[in-house]
Specification:
Layout: E1 6-12, H1 21-39, E2 41-47, H2 70-80, E3 84-90, H3 98-105, E4 115-122, H4 128-140, E5 144-153, H5 154-157, E6 158-159, E7 162-163, H6 167-193, E8 199-200, E9 207-210, H7 216-226, H8 228-234, H9 240-243, H10 246-255, E10 257-263, E11 266-276, E12 279-287, H11 296-306, E13 314-320, H12 324-332, E14 336-341, E15 346-352
Parallel strand pairs: 1-2, 1-3, 3-4, 4-5, 12-13
Antiparallel strand pairs: 6-7, 8-9, 9-10, 10-11, 11-12, 13-15, 14-15
Helix pairs in contact: 1-6, 7-10
Length: about 375
């Protein structure tokens, strides 16, 4: 299970003036907030009526991910950051409201492999026919509808535009959240694979992508797994990677270009790079202990080297003087040790980069 907290959008669909939707949304938040706190879930209320989404007006197909309008990009960012959805939805003429259908149609990739639970409300059917309609659409977008639902019959459950306290309904709402959390965690590897820019890694089924500050919890865990051996080899606990908090990791993820190797939603290794003058600095090269000896570290190192800024003339990295495995790897890849040892017990290694070849001069024959 991932160390990241889940972000769940509580979406109020109805945009009709005087609609019951806002009251239902407030009731959902009130009913599930205590349980969300126990589960470490962040609840984010969203009212479709506040988003200013006109009838779908993007010239490109949503699957392209090319969004011309600011309202689409804003909606894309909100949905992309979410791990699941609880939708408060009325039934209009046996179907879901047009506001929800329009909001769904705007996007594509952002919905994939995320659970969606429904809290419906209506008169005769308590909104259940609208849920059946919505499920056909959401499954096409690779959303995963939950089995658990809440169905509110307006005449029986509301007074003066508010949902009456009801332990049965509140329990059903908590049941939706519980199921959503389980499914969201199970689907996390599928969502992780959907990141734009992901490329195949060295292990079958693995992939690499740039890490962001949002990945700080996973990076913190992997660092503490990987750098224990570094501490033992150098007989010191003064290894920064062992002590950094997620907040500190988040800070350096902001300024380093960091590549992460993933498999089934698990971070397996990482390496960070950045340019300083004419040097390309490589650091925090680490691979989880159960994958060592399979060439993963060497592959990450070469990938980091291939990303070197063309203005750089050499690659610089460091490791503990007692880290024999690291030193052997780097020296086999053409790095040479510098004679000095730093105060923290580390030694630097340098590899010169081949100068970029000048473009060939075209030859023109005179006629």
């Amino acid at each position: 299970m991932s160390t990241k907290p889940l972000r769940v959008l509580v979406v109020v669909c109805s945009s009709r003036p005087g609609a019951l939707g806002p009251a239902v949304g407030e009731w959902i938040i009130e009913a599930i907030t205590p349980r969300a706190a126990q589960l470490g879930v962040e609840l984010v209320p969203v009212a479709l009526g506040d988003l200013g989404l006109p009838f779908l007006d993007e010239p490109e197909h949503p699957s392209s991910g090319i969004y011309r309008h600011a309202h689409t990009r804003r909606w894309s960012g909100i949905v992309d950051a979410a791990d699941g959805f609880v939708v408060a939805m009325p039934e209009y003429n046996y179907g879901m409201p047009a506001s929800l259908k329009n909001a769904l149609d705007y996007l594509s990739r952002e919905w994939a492999w995320k659970p969606i639970g429904f809290v419906s409300y209506g008169n005769t059917s308590a909104g259940t026919r609208a849920v059946q309609h919505a499920k056909q659409v959401t499954t096409t977008l690779r959303l995963v509808p939950l089995g658990a639902t809440v169905a509110i019959r307006i005449g029986d459950a509301t007074d003066d535009g508010r949902v009456r306290p009801d332990t049965v309904l509140a329990g059903a709402a908590v049941g939706v959240l519980d199921e959503l959390v389980r499914v969201a965690h199970a689907l996390r590897p599928m969502r992780e694979r959907m990141h734009t820019g992901a490329k195949p890694g060295p292990i079958p089924g693995s992939y690499v992508r740039r890490l962001t500050p949002e990945d700080a919890p996973e990076v913190t865990v992997v660092q503490r797994c990987c750098w224990v051996d570094e501490a033992l080899a150098n007989d010191t606990l003064a290894v920064p990677a062992l002590h950094e908090s997620p907040e500190q990791v988040r800070d350096w993820l902001e300024i380093w270009d960091t590549l992460g190797l993933w498999l089934d939603g698990r971070l397996l290794g990482l390496v960070r790079t950045r340019r300083s003058g004419g040097d390309w600095h490589v650091g925090r090269l680490g691979v989880v202990p159960d994958l060592r000896g399979r060439g993963v570290g060497r592959w990450l190192l070469r990938t980091a080297e291939a990303d070197a800024d063309p203005r750089c003339t050499r690659i610089v990295l460091s490791t503990g003087v007692g880290s024999r495995r690291n030193l052997a790897l780097y020296q086999s890849e053409g790095y040479r040790r510098t004679p000095a040892t730093a105060d923290d017990g580390t030694t630097s290694l340098v590899k010169n980069l081949e100068p970029m070849a000048a473009p060939p001069v075209s030859q023109h024959r005179s006629r």
